[in-house]
């Protein structure tokens, strides 16, 4: 069971101890995996793949973390470990985040004193792209919406306002905030397209970074091992990382409130599980990557769907175009519902979902 997680643990373990010692049984490793959640994750991905097998969407990946401890509770790195051991959930450079990156932009803006009711003009704009070239960001539907609040711009996932806000805040500031929340700096380039998802990330990185919001702005790095003991039972390692405040609590609450609306009132509705939850869909321009990154006050989970062999547009999969609000949100729901079954429906502290008119996008 859970072969991707096991290989992930071995890789992490081998950085501190010799692989030989592990295979010779000299150590006992206590991991963070929750087998019930892992089974739910594998089942959600399996059903997702079965429904879409004829469409040849060959890979899906999922990572879930406990937002209070950083513990990785479930990990599925692809469709079939026996055929491909590459762990999309946690390995390598990752894939473009699309609109799922936008919460970092608005979090940075709110940290500078803006509010969800601050406004930005959604209108045509162009920027120098070097070499005499210009870059003109466009909204997914090709239209513009005039003056909009940050709340509406994020909930509707308009691209142009996100770029303008990032330009106002400073893309380096956005990158700083995303890094503090859990996205490795080397994954992000200091150019404005990063604001609308040009950064390449893994599901584990996104689940962990969104978990910072779920944990009221406290950052806890993801862990897969809590304790290591030797053959005599001596404890060699205890790993319970402390949280570090990286986002003010009031700012985290405001972002959580907007992202609750993105689920309750938008195309994120496919992810509704009947308890307080927040999230953001993500789709790249060419529909080659689709994400749903969502969380409750206790568990954060990111799901990615796409073709691992390259940037192949998913424009006709079972007759639909794949974006974050479709298969990724459905897989997220199929996992999170059973994963949290029987647990209290914890509310987000200090945030409200007022069901304002909003709609998530792509």
What does this structure look like?
The C terminus is likely disordered. It is globular, with a radius of gyration of 20 Å. The chain contains 10 helices and 16 strands. It has 362 residues and is an alpha+beta fold. It starts with a helix and ends in a 22-residue tail after the last helix. Helix 3 runs antiparallel to helix 10 and helix 4 crosses helix 6.
The count of helical stretches stands at 10
Strand tally: 16
The geometry reads as globular
Spans of at least 5 consecutive residues whose pLDDT stays below 50 are 311-324, 352-362
> H/E element string?
HHEHEEEHEEEEHHHEHEEEEHEEEH
Strand order of the largest sheet: 3-2-16-15-14
The percent of residues in helical segments reads: 25-40%
Instruction: Tell me the distance between the termini.
Output: 33 Å
Secondary structural class: alpha+beta
Mean pLDDT: 86
Q: What portion of residues belong to β-strands?
A: 15-25%
How many strands, which pairing sense, and closed or not: the largest β-sheet?
5 strands, antiparallel
Q: Round the Cα radius of gyration to an integer and report it.
A: 20 Å
